[in-house]
Amino acid sequence: MTFLNYLELLKLRIGVVIALTAVVGYLAVAERVSAVQIVLLVLAMLMGSAASSVFNHYYDRDIDRKMHRTANRPMARDLLVHPTRVLWMAAALLVLGLSLALFAFNSAVALHLFLGSFFYGIVYTVWLKRRTWLNIVIGGAAGSFAVLAGAAAVNPQSWFLPMLLAIVLFLWTPSHFWSLAILLKDDYAKAGVPMLPVLVGEKRTAQSILFNSLLLVGASLLPWGLGLLGPTYGALAALSGAAFLWANLKLLQTPHDRRWARINFFGSMQHLLAIFIAIILDVHL
């Protein structure tokens, strides 16, 4: 049981998304693909993500107890009798991840891994989450560093396309998380976390999601518009973006219908996956 509790602290679902994002960054600029490098990159990113997730569990255990979605987390239930061990666990994971990134690749990969962990663990969790609705906007930069790390694993000097993809990741996070925040509005209000729906309501949040998604879709088309990626990417990104914007519009028409908030939440993940697939198809097929 204790092993499973510690395993839950890692937030492996988030880690898998972070690792996948890094792999896409790698594939976006790699002419030759090394399976060994991809495995090492995935391991490093998983450890970096897990480090910040473990710290997030530790730091947020007080507000986790107040939210239905998080009340059963191990730290919230005091199932781990030595909380300081959790901090050591986070530190060890970060050191291992950084060491692997540095020795298997280069200092640029290690730097991006560190910045991703720092933004999620400190900038988002400690500095912003409990203070401002911009928490997820600024803190969302954590995911952007993963694609930069993946590209740097191939060539640290190849920055233009990875930077555009990092912007896409940065803009994706608010549309994704604000949809979830609508679903969890009561939980966040109970915990005193100033997520956007708690402060301005569902309608204005839906308006913000649509505005942000317009920026997101526009940014996702830049690699095609600037000639960095080809027509396969452009077509798939445009079609997926149009479908996501349609779901945003349906949410705006019925902002109190949580069914459309849920559709937008999962739709954002489908849109991101479509962009990832489009990149791989365009570059390697």
Give an overview in words:
- The protein is mainly α and 285 residues long.
- It folds into 2 domains: 119 residues, no CATH class; 127 residues, Up-down Bundle (Four Helix Bundle (Hemerythrin (Met), subunit A)), CATH 1.20.120.
- It is 80% helix and 0% strand.
- It has 13 helices and no strands.
- Helix 9 runs antiparallel to helix 11 and helix 9 runs antiparallel to helix 13.
- The protein is flat, with a radius of gyration of 19 Å.
Global geometry: flat
- In CATH's first tier, which class of the largest domain applies? Mainly Alpha
CATH architecture of the largest domain: Up-down Bundle
Could you give the distance between the termini?
45 Å
**Series of secondary-structure elements, N-terminal to C-terminal:** HHHHHHHHHHHHH
Structural class: mainly alpha
How do the strands and helices of this protein lay out in sequence?
Elements lengths: L1 H8 L2 H18 L5 H25 L1 H4 L18 H22 L2 H22 L6 H5 L1 H14 L5 H24 L1 H7 L4 H30 L5 H23 L4 H27 L1
What's the gist of this structure?
By secondary structure, the protein is mainly alpha-helical. The protein has helices spanning 2-9, 12-29, 35-59, 61-64, 83-104, 107-128, 135-139, 141-154, 160-183, 185-191, 196-225, 231-253, 258-284.
